[in-house]
Amino acid sequence: EKGGYEHFMLKEIHEQPKALRDTMLGRLKDGSVVLEEVDLTLEQLARINKVYIVACGTAWHAGLVGKTLIERWAHLPVEVDIASEFRYRGPIIDDHTLVIVISQSGETADTLAALREAKNRGARVVAVTNVVGSTVSREAHDVIFTWAGPEIAVASTKAYITQLEGMVMLGLYLAQVKGTLPQEKIGEIITALKLIPEQAQEVLNQEDLIKELAQSFVKVEDAFFIGRSLDWAVAMEGALKLKEISYIHAEAYAAGELKHGTLALVTEETPVIALATQRDVYDKTISNVKEVKARDARVIGLTYKGNTNMAKSVDHVIYVPETIDELAPLLTVIPLQLLSYYVSVARGCDVDKPRNLAKSVTVE
Ligand code: M6R
To answer: Which ranges does the record mark as transmembrane (predicted)?
Structure first.
């Protein structure tokens, strides 16, 4: 069952290259995206003037990445909501709205309630889910199944990575139908996406290095994850993983926002994990890294292989293979998952079944 791994989480982390491959299988053909369970025509999409992405926890983090991709590629305004907040803030939903719900289990109570509310108000609902036959998959108009296989560990890993992949493919699909990206550009992104499973494997091959880094977190009480743009979204996922399974307080911050208050908390006692892949904001992120360095924080950088610049400003660097920036989250999350995993093990925590948490949250 655990296939020789000590925990389901570690097994599932290692299953990610396969999960990524399975999820793209048959969906990337001749330079375009084919989503069989999604049937949005140009006429239908032309009506859409607003997108909401609604989800909880890790799935919500995948939605944050989805927002940038859909806005950038399909030129549609997107808001991302936590499902338990969505219904109560009076979102403006009508038949010009596209609602995307993301749920590994397809049974999360708040996500399901949001889906039903959106449908009642006339929205078109696309679900991204990992469980065939789940309530979410049955009730949505369109479905993108993630083919991660059963995820047992409470901490989501392979489901998240395939949700990201689902958002990439949906973003491209919307751009394709709307004609907002040149075919050539779509082809380029698809070529890069096809490389991701083997690049993910390359990241996994650095496991020993990350395990070693994790040892220095055993006594840590607070940690920060910082980044800009898509790196910030992944930072949130990294912080959640660390909190969830190692019980270390962790906070993700938009790097440029630190100096508006939170920087006061950064000392030599607070390690900072700084994600810096997004080329358009790279220099700005490095300026923020220097701000935390100036407070004596130990900084672990995360950037593309081949970038020799970051090492000058931080204490350690973890490298991921180079890809296009929109796909970087598919690689940068892996070291963060491994880091949390090894910190959790080193602290003697119950990795697969963290205290107070359940795999599927079926109460609101
Ligand atoms: O099954 P879902 O994707 O709807 O679950 C949503 C969250 O409960 C889930 O992602 C949770 O945040 C994970 N335990 C995080 O690792």
So the answer is: none
Contact 11, 3 (CB under 8 A): yes
**Complete edge-to-edge strand list for the sheet that includes strand 78-82:** 78-82, 50-55, 97-103, 124-129, 142-145
> Which tens digits make up the pLDDT trace of 209-220?
999 999 999 999
Residue 104 C-alpha to ligand 1 middle, in angstroms?
7
**For a pocket test of ligand 1, which of 81, 100, 104 has the largest count of ligand atoms closer than 8 A to its C-beta?**
104
Identify whether the C-beta of residue 128 lies closer than 8 Å to the C-beta of residue 105. no
User: Which residue's CA is the closest to the ligand 1 atom numbered 10?
Assistant: 58
Say which residues have a Cβ less than 8 Å from residue 160's Cβ, sequence separation at least 6: 58, 59, 61, 62, 104, 237, 333
Q: How much distance in Å is there from the Cα of 323 to the middle of ligand 1?
A: 27
Decide whether any atom of ligand 1 lies within 6 Å of the 104 Cβ: yes
Does ligand 1 lie within 6 Å of residue 105's CB atom? yes
Ligand 1 and 155: CB distance under 6 A: yes
The H or E element spanning position 201 is helix 183-204
Ligand 1, atom nearest to 157 Cα: 16
The pTM is what?
Answer: 0.97
CA distance 283 to 310: 10
CA dihedral 152, 20, 103, 166 (to 10 degrees): 180
In eight-state DSSP terms, residue 276 is: -
Residue 128 has pLDDT above 90, yes or no: yes
Question: Sheet containing 222-227: which strands, arranged edge to edge?
Answer: 249-254, 222-227, 272-275, 299-304, 316-320
25-35 mean pLDDT: 95
> Is the Cα dihedral 69, 243, 104, 210 positive or negative?
positive
Q: What is the pLDDT of residue 362?
A: 86
End-to-end CA distance of the chain: 31
Six-digit token pair at 30? 């001749």
Contact 127, 142 (CB under 8 A): yes
